[in-house]
Amino acid sequence: MRLFGIPGVPLALTLAGLIPFAAGAGVMWAAAGDPVLKAQAGLVLLVYGAVILSFLGGVRWGAEANAQGGGLPRTGIMVLSVLGSLAGWAAVLYGVLGALGWPVFGALALAHLMQGIWDSDGAGLPIWMRRLRRVATLGAFAALMAGAASYAAL
User: Fold this and answer.
1) pLDDT tens for each residue of 68-108
2) d(CA 125, CA 146)
3) Exposed, middle or buried: residue 45 (CB in 10 Å: 0-12, 13-18, 19+)?
4) Which residues contact 141 (CB under 8 A, 6 or more apart)?
5) Contacts of 133 (CB under 8 A, 6+ apart)
């Protein structure tokens, strides 16, 4: 089964992977009156967002290694594939150190958006993966921005 050229299993797994994003943002909004629960849900959302950025960087790293057929990988691609992981780690660190608020969620949302733009136009990825990344980016970006809005709505 395919939907818009995306194989069914990767699509189903990606949609399942968006559930923690939606749940984290949802709990943040539902816990508006409980700052501790809201902060805990926010940190969970940040950590999950960072983990996913690391995973996506690994996908690009692997695609680059495979694309070169045993030759030397392109330095720029390898560097870019690690930047998302570092951005995610920085967001979690920033959130844990007490700066949990809309800017950190907005920054992580922007990192997901930038990774998604790169992936949706990325050489070395099959066309179905590029389409899939658009779906995933939209979901992650929306959830992280909802998390940001939950703090901006104070």
Assistant:
1) 677 888 899 899 999 999 999 999 999 999 789 999 999 99
2) 29
3) buried
4) 109, 112, 113, 116
5) 116, 119, 120, 125
Amino acid at 65: A
Alpha helices in 3-153 (DSSP H): 8-30, 35-67, 75-96, 102-120, 127-152
58, 83 Cβ separation under 8 angstroms: no
Report residue 103 as tokens: 């800017």
86-109 b/e (C-beta count within 10 Å ≥ 16 → b): ebbeebbebbeeeebbbebbbbbb
d(CA 94, CA 16): 27
